[in-house]
UniProtKB/TrEMBL annotation, chain A:
Residues 462-472 have a biased composition (Polar residues). This is RGS domain-containing protein. GO terms for cellular component: cytoplasm; neuron projection; plasma membrane. It comes from Perca fluviatilis (European perch). Keywords: Signal transduction inhibitor. The lineage of its organism: Eukaryota, Metazoa, Chordata, Craniata, Vertebrata. InterPro entries: DEP_dom (IPR000591), G-protein_gamma-like_dom (IPR015898), GGL_sf (IPR036284), RGS (IPR016137), RGS6/7/9/11 (IPR047016), RGS6/7/9/11_DHEX_sf (IPR047017), RGS_DHEX (IPR040759), RGS_sf (IPR036305).
TrEMBL record, chain B:
The keyword Transmembrane helix applies. It comes from Perca fluviatilis. This is Regulator of G protein signaling 9 binding protein. Keywords: Membrane, Signal transduction inhibitor, Transmembrane, Transmembrane helix. Belongs to the RGS7BP/RGS9BP family. The chain crosses the membrane at residues 219-243. InterPro entries: RGS7BP/RGS9BP. It comes from the Eukaryota. GO terms for biological process: negative regulation of signal transduction.
Length: 472, 246
């Protein structure tokens, strides 16, 4: 007994639309007047009707659908590959030969179907039947599958044997010709549904699983939802590429000097010179930061806050201005957002006690609406409950304290103090590589080339060579 | 004894299931006809009767707490056989509904698939119903009228199977089959004989091998043997006369 997953949902499984189309073609071929021309298949003594040649199939397709021969060949090839027509001469080769090779239609029960997939039980019964008929002479892969099935559905193996015998007995009741046809049909069916190893399985769609959207009914509900989706899409904010490219260019220009790949790293590229001075000088907390780093603090507020040293400096400044609680609050909120889930509640409590409660030690100045919302949210604290308040304080600092900091003496002194590391001196030996640009980046090469071009174009300039030389 | 009774009933159900499948395969093809639809209907009803009988018997046996362990294992095995049979029946019934709807018989242009099967399925149905000859007495609109009955019966069967799964506590995977792999080759009964002759029909060339034992060719071979013996006797008599003459 297989686990009955088909109990409720299986009844609604759909037949793939391509199969339904092929079925329609097959049924059209059966028309007594306009259908296929049938011949008789002559075996030694028995004559079996309803055989057709490949050539006839192609001719009929060309005639009925007014298509070219190539297309008819392709279409009929599909019909054979999907098992609606099976070859009589070489049953294992599922191709359509446009000559006199005979084919026959498959009975509807054995049509390929996604709605009625072939089950393991049926395959086991088929193999058992074949075993009986051939006295054990199955093909290699059939033998392996047989033993595999015997292991897998061992509990119903008695049933398999019983049913196989009974089905053979039932088929004995029919005429010889019908028996032959029945066997051919079954063989064709299982060649498609359980193809021999190495053969392409037409039912295996892999990643290109087709969309069985036959379930979408084109009624007014469907169209209403489509209209709604399109309307929402219209309202989306779109930026012209000219505008966003402009800001991108500005950003690139601003950061050009700070990019170690584009500009080279002072004192030297550690990967090349094995000198880790660059890293030690730019580490999180140094007594004296590099100049580039301090310059970056003036680019945007986020840059300042992301840099540990920058935050410390900013904190010192704010303490002088008596608005340090803003930064503390902001840092505490960040801690909640990025910290452990188990401690969220206690952290939220602490923030409330220190920053938000009326009369708190370090009370932050938030507008009443945000304050109400936050207090409401604190009752059910989660990771992002402080987001609105944090955003408010962030913008407060950005608009107010940050510009003043950049103009302050504290910052200017820091900038003056900042060091510009010296390039490692060229060594005495003339043929040792220069460290800074020793690994010429393609950008460097291009930049040099264009500059040389530019200078060459300005023809007749005296300092051409020296200008080009000084850029290197 | 309960066990033997069960086994015979299960065999009967098995036989009917096999015949039913055979009949459904013929649906929609050129061997489809009024008669086939009626045969399907009667086989189906018989299958259902047998199913209900089997189920009541087996459930009563399984509910009995006082049976021994081997007995219980045996009944569980029979139960698994029964439910597999019902599975096949259910699928075949659903498919026959679908194909029956797609291929109605009483339409001006019948588009039955020309599969090469042209014989009738009377004998199969007779085997299923365990009668000698089938009598056909249905009306001409059986193909549409029957479909409604079929739908009811399908829902009945589905319901029964669900009840079976819920109420009977049998773990199918715990059952061990009695037959080992390849068991069908042993005790090679009547199935082997004529079907062996039909080997390699569908293989490389449509070669045909005549096997003995099928009904028509059996009769022909007996005739041939008789004629041969007559000729041999005549030849012997003539030879004797010739020798006597000379």
């Amino acid at each position: 007994m297989t686990i009955n997953t088909l109990a409720k949902g299986g009844w609604h499984r759909e037949q793939m639309s391509c199969f339904r189309k092929m079925e329609k073609v097959i049924v059209a071929m059966q028309d007594p007047d306009m259908g296929m021309k049938m011949r008789n298949q002559r075996l030694l003594i028995t004559v079996i009707p309803h055989a057709m040649t490949g050539h006839d199939i192609i001719a009929w397709l060309i005639h009925s659908y007014s298509i070219c021969e190539e297309e008819a060949l392709h279409l009929s090839g599909l019909l054979v590959r999907y098992g609606y027509i099976y070859p009589l001469k070489e049953p294992r080769s599922l191709v359509l030969r446009p000559d006199e090779s005979p084919y026959r239609f498959q009975t509807p029960y054995f049509w390929t179907s996604t709605r009625w997939p072939a089950s393991e039980l049926d395959y086991a019964i088929y193999l058992a039947k074949k075993n009986i008929r051939k006295q054990g002479e199955l093909m290699e892969y059939e033998k392996t599958r047989y033993s595999l099935l015997h292991k897998r559905i061992n509990h119903t193996w008695d049933f398999v044997v019983m049913q196989a015998r009974e089905q053979l007995r039932a088929s004995k009741q029919r005429r010889k010709a019908d028996r032959i046809v029945l066997e051919c049909q079954e063989q064709a069916y299982w060649l498609i549904n359980r193809p021999p190893p190495g053969a392409h399985s037409v039912l295996d769609m892999g990643l290109e699983r087709p969309n069985t959207s036959a379930g979408v009914t084109l009624n007014s509900e469907h169209y209403k939802s489509e209209i709604e989706t399109s309307r929402r899409a219209l309202g989306r904010n779109r930026v012209k590429s000219s505008i966003c490219l402009e800001s991108f260019v500005k950003y690139s220009e601003q950061y050009q000097n700070h990019d170690p790949i584009m500009q080279g790293s002072l004192p030297s590229n550690p990967w090349i010179s094995d000198d880790t001075a660059y890293w030690t000088m730019n580490s999180e907390m140094v007594p004296i930061p590099t100049r580039l780093r301090v310059e970056r603090w003036s680019f945007s507020f986020m840059e300042l806050l992301n840099d540990g040293m920058g935050r410390r400096e900013f904190m010192t400044y704010l303490e002088k201005e008596f608005s340090a609680e803003n930064l503390c609050f902001w840092q505490a909120c960040e801690d909640i957002k990025h910290g452990e889930s188990s401690r969220i509640i206690e952290k939220v409590e602490m923030i409330y006690k220190n920053f938000l409660a009326p009369g708190a030690a370090r009370w932050v100045n938030i507008d009443s609406k945000t304050m109400d919302k936050t207090l409401e949210g604190i009752r059910n604290p989660h990771r992002f409950v402080m987001d609105d308040a944090q955003m408010h304080i962030y913008f407060l600092m950005k608009k107010d304290s940050y510009p003043r900091y950049l103009k302050s003496d504290l910052y200017k002194n820091m900038l003056a103090k900042a060091i510009v590391p010296q390039e490692t001196k060229k060594s005495v030996f003339p043929f040792v590589r220069r460290q800074r640009h020793s690994n010429p980046s393609p950008a460097q090469a291009v930049a040099q080339a264009t500059e040389e071009d530019g200078h060459a174009k300005g023809a007749g300039q005296a300092g051409t060579n020296s200008a080009a030389g000084s850029n290197v | 004894m309960g066990k033997d009774e069960c086994k015979t009933m299960l065999d009967a159900l098995n036989k009917v299931t096999a015949c039913y499948r055979h009949l459904v395969i013929a649906l929609g093809s050129t061997s489809d006809s009024q008669n086939l639809r009626e045969e399907l209907k009667r086989t189906r009803k018989k299958a259902q009767e047998l199913a209900v009988a089997n189920r009541t018997k087996l459930t009563s046996l399984l509910k009995d707490k006082s049976i021994s362990k081997e007995d219980r294992a045996e009944y569980e095995r029979l139960w698994v056989l029964f439910s597999s049979s019902m599975e096949l029946l259910e699928v075949d019934m659903k498919r026959s509904l679908e194909i029956g709807q797609d291929f109605p018989l009483k339409v001006p242009t019948r588009h039955l698939i020309q599969t090469g099967m042209t014989g009738s399925t009377t004998t199969v149905a007779a085997r299923a119903m365990s009668v000698q000859n089938m009598k056909y007495e249905a009306d001409s609109n059986i193909d549409t009228a029957d479909l409604r009955d079929l739908q009811c019966e399908i829902s009945q069967v589905s319901q029964m199977m669900e009840e079976m799964e819920m109420k009977v506590q049998v773990a199918p995977w715990a059952v061990e089959a009695k037959q080992e792999a390849g068991a069908e080759l042993k005790s090679n009964m009547s199935v082997g004989n004529s079907s062996v002759g039909v080997i390699s029909i569908c293989e490389e060339e449509p070669k045909e091998e005549e096997g003995g034992g099928s009904r028509d060719s059996g009769f022909a071979s007996i005739c041939a043997v008789v004629i041969f013996l007559v000729i041999v006797t005549v030849a012997v008599v003539l030879g004797y006369l010739v020798i006597n003459m000379s």
